[in-house]
Design a protein that fits this description.
This protein is mainly alpha-helical and about 80 residues long. Helices cover about 35% and strands about 10% of the residues. The termini are far apart.
């Protein structure tokens, strides 16, 4: 019985270490801001039509406005 408890405790530690490691590795990117005057990073997002749109498609245009509007999906 004592050996069984040790085994369960050992596996609990292994699983906990794995979960902590996965969380730490998964959160490595973090948020960052673009400084004024720097180009925006390349990204692809789905448009309301369902087609993917990339920022590079607008290269050379004078202005590009990207708006993230989430108020329609906010809980009331």
């Amino acid at each position: 019985m004592e050996n069984s408890r040790k085994r369960v405790f050992c596996w609990g530690r292994v699983i906990s270490a794995f979960i902590i490691g996965a969380v730490l590795l998964g959160s490595g990117g973090g948020a960052w801001a673009v400084e004024v005057g720097q180009p925006a990073p390349e990204f692809n997002l789905p448009a309301t039509t369902g087609v993917n749109v990339s920022l590079s498609e607008f290269l050379g245009k004078s202005w590009v406005l990207v708006e993230f509007y989430g108020a329609d999906f906010a809980p009331t």
